[in-house]
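Colleagues,

Please find the record for the two-part complex below.
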Amino acid sequence: MALITDLIVQGAQMLLVLLLAPLLTGFVRKVKARLLRHQGAPLLQPYRDLLRLSRKEIVVADTASWLFRVAPYLMFSAIWVAAALVPTFALNLVFSWSADLIVIVALLGAARFFLALAGLDVGTSFGGIGASREMMIAPLAEPAMLMIVFTLSLLAGSTQLSSIAAYMSGPDVGIRISVGLSLAGLVIVAIAENARIPVDNPATHLELTMVHEAMVLEYSGRHLAMIEAAASLKLLLYVSLIGAIFVPWGMATADQGIAAYLVGVAVYLGKLAVGGFVLAVFETSVAKMRVFRVPQFLGAALMLGLLGTLLLFVSRNL
Amino acid sequence: MNGLSFDIAHLLAGGLVLVSFMLLYQARMYALLNLFALHAVVLSLSVAWQALIQGAPHLYVTAAIALGFKGLVIPLALHRIVQRLHIHRAIEPVVGIGLTMLAGMGLVALSIGVVLPVTAEAGSLAREDLAFSMAVILLGMLMMVSRHNAVSQVVGFMSLENGLILAATGANGMPLVVEISVAFSILIAFIVIGIFLFRIRERFDTVDLHALDTFRGERR
């Protein structure tokens, strides 16, 4: 019986992230529009877009191989699994033993690999340029992410997200500069990975600037719906990852019953709203940077992770 | 209390190293000067915190000197020099920023690796301060060798001196006289460097110090 309850809670988390992801995207778009004094699309617009896309006919280029058709599903499933593993409203769920930071990085890397392959598959120049830019960003974002993971796991003594979150909400953590450095690094990585504004503009089809949009230019219909949903899920994943690690308070643990879960969900919604609002304010206040400055931007994240590890080394050795 | 006070000291000293890295990363003149002022502010906070937890009131004077001279007077004067010389465009580093940052990481690792084993008997606060100040000093030197522009070399020199002050406050019992005289010698050095800047500018129409190498015939 206990196992069934646990499985239901875990399933609820998987559904929750899937259902909330388009809402978060819509919320960020709405706040951005309001900050620019536009009316903006309604909050539920991303859901409508997904529905409309999934009903439409798909058009596939003659040169496309089977990979082109499979890649959106692979990408969506990898990112969904990763997003469902991040603790959202509760810690120590059934599958939390597999909610390892390195697993999440690997799942995201696999998704990116398939997307880049699909961009190259059709053989158009846009897909190629998008894939090559994505592969220029990825080898810098991933080591930066891994350095941050390394810092956090040195601190908490584990790479499991539940243990890290439990450690960070516990009394031992103290005021450490390494935590601040890894937060800044993780935010930079999140911005780059989600193709948000200083790195890439998610709302444009301008050929000079686009990275993500260039790769998915050939997709239509339900394939495009999958990719859009995966992009929303990825944004949700990073916001809840930052929330789970750096603002770990208010999460229920596995055996506290339904009321604690409801409180956890409410706190989680609050975290998402704050995260989305901050992201929207940040995006409206900075300008898109040149593509060739992106390596410097991500290099800063790598450096922050490295510096965090070094400083941690000092304080551990005293 | 002890854990918390150590944590805050660690935070401030680590913040100083971080600002040193931001100085290395920054490629714009005015932003560089503002960062340098931030460097001095973080230093004075760190020194003031040390004064509080060591119970050494003369360190407050050091903090005030750091804040007044290096947080206000020198950045403002450098702003004026940059305006008068019209050199507010981008600074050109000798090698790429990424390579400089990597070298900087190596220097931080080096200073930690050198200082921590050597000072095994000292108190934890002093050890940590020494390690971080060594890192700040080496980063200041790296900044001086990695920039062409005379003004950013001055900033590197001043940030190096900030590292020295951090080291001095970590070690208990540095007399106030020494600190005041160091502060004044830095001010004198700054004035001399400022005069030199104007002379170099007058003669070579640039503050790129490679012009001096060319003039001496060391570089064709």
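Chain A has a mean pLDDT of 88.

Comments are welcome before we finalize the supplementary table.
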